[in-house]
Every structure is written in structure tokens, then in C-alpha cells.
Amino acid sequence: MVGLKPSTRFDASKHLAYVPPESRITMKELALEDVGISPIAVTAPFPLFSREGVTELRRDILSKEVLDKYTVSSYLAAFQGREFTKNVAPFVHDAWTSPEVIAAVSEAAGIDLVPIMDLELGHTNFQLGEKGKAGIAETSVEPNPPELGIAVNDLVKYQEMADKEDGTSKDNVVTWHYDSYPFVCVLMLSDVSQMIGGETALQCGDGRIVKARGPGLGYCVVMQGRHVKHTALRSYNTGERITMVTSFRAKDPLVRDASVLSTIHPITKRNRINYQWTLYRMKLLAERFTAMANQLEAQKASFGELDDEDGQGGSEVVNVPKTQKWLEEQIEYLSTTGEQLMM
Predict the structure, then answer these.
(1) d(Cα 74, Cα 125) in Å, to the nearest integer?
(2) Tell me: the pLDDT tens digits for 8-20?
(3) Residue 63: which residues within 8 A CB-CB, separation 6 or more?
């Protein structure tokens, strides 16, 4: 927590450094073209935050209050920071809810997105060093390069070990999993210029494993993690590795939302998740029904005022089979909402 001072307000002109990704891996390339809500599986790393922006994000997540009250361990990762409220991590909240950041992430994903819930803004994974959890409290808010002094022979050895990583190691930063939410933006908050390995491994629909290059300081990748099974591979020759993950769903309420809470329950406070989960789902359903009602009214109006002049009921507005199928999908969505609540 070296160098802490009160959190500042997010300013896109100073804290944002967005440049669109140069390339993307598609769902089709992963043999997953029949699933998901976008043709994009994962982007190449691209710059999102400036060094000053990264420093302010680190300032929030390395504060004593966050480390004391908002950190957890789980089967997925040894040490995580999450659920920090806006008054505890104001810069994190301002940044990830800013129109500029949301627009950048949406462009990279190939679909308009919005953050899923407040409690998922800025979820942080810490790769523990030799000092374990205690060492995190000594971490500087400045993303300084590691002083490693590794011999050339060791670097060659590390590269050989990294090349062999295929996701089966117990030392992965997180285990193989699907995310709970449609899209994630994974931001690197550490100077990993000397890091070897640390890629994201993706499992293809035909069983192949594809490695996606990890981001550098201030860079991120955007991934359709709900529909692509993945893991973060072990990294070598790095003093720290802090990544920040913010989850998103489609902005359009009519786009399928396959969110669940299977990986969230073990690391989340019951009352907080039950409230935010139920609230976002109810609002989304309200938007869906409003949108469908508007479509029905527009369809009816398109037939003109004289459509029912003969008194026989006019043209068909409601396609019964399609409407029944859509309503069944909403019932399923509502059922999932209840099933995923924490008891």
C-alpha cells in the first residue's frame, strides 16, 4: 500500500489510452460458431488505460479498507479483491461506468455492452509472491518494473516451461472455467514486460487448446468468457501479476443473456448478490417486455388505419408460435433468476 492518497476522479482525457485491437480470434476459429452473442471470442491485447489511470486503479484496490474487507480466496484463485462499493473504490467505479470505457469495450467486442452489476466492477486477481497475502499489503501503487536479475540460462528454462504449459498445471492463476457472464474485459495492472508465459488458454469446440497472448501494463483483452472455456496459465519471471476483470452483458435487452452465478456464489456476500442480481434481471425483463410491446404496436400501425375496415379483425399482428416460444424463454429466464439466488 506504498504511496496511498485519496482516490481521484476518473478523467478520460488523462486516464484513458484506448486504441482498438489489431486483431481478434473469432468463435468460428475456435469451432464455437453456434454459441455466444457475438462472432468475437477474444481480442488481441490493446491499450485501454494510461499509466496514470492504472496507478489510480491500483490505489483503490490496494487500500487498507479494500484489502481488509473486500478480499477472498476460492477454488478458482488464491487471492481476489471484489465487491468494493463506490465509496470504497470510487475511481474503479467511475472508470468502468464511464461512457468512454464502455464504448471502447463494446467496439472491441463487436456488440454494444453494459456492465453486468456494480459488484462486478473491477474484480481483481492477485498472483501471490513469496510473501503470500502479506506481501500484497507492501505492494506499491505505482506499477514499477520488477527487479528480478534472472540469469540467461534461467530465462531459457522458463521459456521452455511456458511453451509446455497447456492448462493442466495446478499452478494456473485460475482453473479451467466458463465465466458467469457473457463478456469480460481483463486489464493488466502490473508491469509484466519481463514476464514469460501467462497466456490465456482457450478450449476449442473440437478439443484443441489455443493460447491467447496476455496483455501488458494498461492493456486489456476482451473475451466472450461465458461461452469459451478458458484458464490463465502460470507466468514466470514476474514479481507481481495483478489483473482487473469487469464483466459485461449485451446492452440490447432482447439479446440472449446466459448469465449464471455458479462461480460467483463462493466469493460473494449473500445479501449483496441477491439484491443486485434480482434488480438487474427485473429491469432487463421490464425492458424486454416494453420492447416487445413497442414492436407489436409498430406492427399494428404498419397495416394502416383501414386494416380492420371490414370488421373481420384485421391482419395478423401476433405470430402465435413465435410469441409462445419467446414467452417460454422469458419464463425460463425468470426461473433461472430464482434458481441462482443464494439461500
Answers:
(1) 11
(2) 899 999 999 999 9
(3) 1, 4, 7, 88, 89
